[in-house]
Design goal:
It is built from 5 helices and 5 strands. The chain has 123 residues and is α/β, with parallel strands linked by helices.
Length: 123
């Protein structure tokens, strides 16, 4: 079986590079620099999992999750929110309406823990 594909949507180039370096041996890694590019990449590449930042300049992670949940080609792709922002009930409340939202991880979560969550939500 081939490698699962993950899409990293994050405006921080250092985070994208770090995640790509950590996960490229086990996953095919696609990257997007903002929400708009992320939605287009998700539609075109149909990743198994999306790692999504909350706070981006062009559109919020919440808006990206909303749009992904409404597109037939992306609505079933699991979205894991990975951010430096503190996980609060307010953030959870904003993402909960979207069935593709599968969890929240801090950017300081270990790569092993992130890998475990990716495997769990991608089947």
């Amino acid at each position: 079986m081939g490698k699962k594909k993950i899409l990293i949507i994050d405006d921080n180039s250092m985070i994208r590079a770090l995640f790509a370096d950590v996960f490229e041996d086990e996953f095919n890694v696609e990257m997007a620099v903002d929400g708009t590019q992320g939605i287009m990449a998700a539609s075109a590449t149909r990743p198994d999992v999306i790692l999504l930042d909350v706070d981006m300049p062009d559109m919020s992670g919440v808006e990206v999750a909303r749009q992904l949940s409404q597109l037939p080609e992306t609505s079933a792709i699991p979205v894991i929110v990975v951010t430096a922002t503190e996980y609060t009930d307010e953030i959870k409340r904003q993402f909960m309406p979207y069935g593709n939202f599968k969890g929240f991880l801090s950017k300081i979560t270990s790569s092993a823990d992130i890998r475990t969550v990716i495997k769990r939500v991608s089947g």
